[in-house]
TrEMBL record:
Residues 30-134, 146-263 form the Gnk2-homologous domain. It comes from the Eukaryota. Residues 1-25 form the signal peptide. This is Gnk2-homologous domain-containing protein. It comes from Leersia perrieri. The keyword Signal applies. Coiled coil: none annotated. It holds the Pfam family Stress-antifung. Gene3D superfamilies: Gnk2 domain, C-X8-C-X2-C motif (3.30.430.20). InterPro entries: GNK2, GNK2_sf. Keywords: Repeat, Signal. The keyword Signal applies.
Length: 271
């Protein structure tokens, strides 16, 4: 019953969250989400031992991951948990806090408590558990899209132009081979100035700061594929990620984050 309620809540693959008036710095809790999945053959009847293993792994995960920002744990051959804090050098304490809070969402009674696989995330970290170490087909293709309006930015009133979206896709795609080749961290960033907005009657340009980061236990090829797929999400309906917005595309093997600098002339209409 709890699961059904959770599933209803989280049914939409595309989550658009707007937290107006909050700064979109990593880990400030401006959004949170979770998704539980299981094969149709998964039976709650033989869940007890698996669940105990998952709970133990999720309990260990925050302190295992916090010092380096990532950990991949296993219990025997049947339970796996991974956690990552977003960014290059996330402070150990905030990484620990983020992973603890997000892992708790998975272990809570109304979390993914009868599920075969599950993930939960916030703006600072991503936690995943499963009964295998391989990526499921659902996880391979699913992406959670979130946009956060930065402090001082007006919520934009119209969707991005196709040209702006195409630019975002291209600059995110360029991060794929770089992240894949970045040994250990599997992370790449870029800053692109002078990106034409050409949206909603707005003219002028914005600066886009982009980051692609993969789960560190994945191969370079998996990382590149994950970033490319996430990049393509930026070209799909219905973003509104012009000036003053941070866009996240979260996947099971990595994520993209794009910060669009506040575009001054958009502020004219601010109340
Ligand atoms: C559940 O238990 C049955 C019978 O012991 C077993 O055949 C099946 O593989 C188990 N399912 C899972 C997903 O572990
Ligand atoms: C999961 O598989 C990857 C290779 O795909 C490996 O690097 C990693 O260590 C594995 N994780 C665990 C916990 O076994
Ligand atoms: C690593 O970088 C090289 C050279 O830029 C590129 O050809 C290759 O595709 C990259 N690796 C991956 C997995 O993307």
């Amino acid at each position: 019953m709890a699961i059904a309620a959770l599933e209803r809540l989280l049914l939409t693959l595309v989550l658009l969250a707007a937290a107006v008036g909050r700064h979109a710095a990593s880990g400030d809790g401006s959004f949170y989400g979770a998704k539980c999945t299981q094969a149709s053959t998964w039976s709650p009847a033989n869940n007890t031992k698996f669940r105990a293993n998952v709970l133990a792994l999720l309990g260990r995960l925050p302190s295992a991951a916090a010092p380096s920002g990532f950990a991949s744990l296993r219990s025997g051959s049947a339970a796996f948990a991974r956690g990552i804090c977003f960014g290059d050098q996330p402070p150990t304490q905030s990484c620990l806090d983020c992973l603890s809070a997000v892992a708790k969402k998975l272990t809570d009674e109304d979390g993914c408590d009868a599920s075969q696989r599950g993930a939960a995330w916030s703006d600072g970290c991503f936690v995943h558990f499963a009964d295998t170490n391989a990526t499921s087909p659902y996880e391979e293709t699913s992406r959670y899209r979130i946009q956060v309006v930065q402090t001082g930015a007006a919520a934009a009133s119209s969707k991005n132009s196709a040209a702006f979206d195409a630019t975002l896709v291209a600059l995110a795609e360029r991060l794929a081979p770089r992240a894949a080749n970045a040994s250990r961290l599997l992370l790449a960033t870029s800053t692109t100035e002078g990106v034409p907005l050409a949206s909603g009657g707005g003219s002028g340009t914005t600066t886009v700061r982009a980051m692609a980061q993969c789960m560190r236990d994945r191969s370079p090829a998996d990382c590149a594929r994950c970033v490319q797929r996430s990049a393509r999400e930026l070209g799909k309906c219905c973003w509104d990620v012009t000036g003053g917005v941070t866009a996240y595309v979260l996947g099971y093997n990595g994520h993209l984050r794009l910060d669009m600098e506040v575009f001054q002339s958009r502020l004219i209409g601010l109340k």
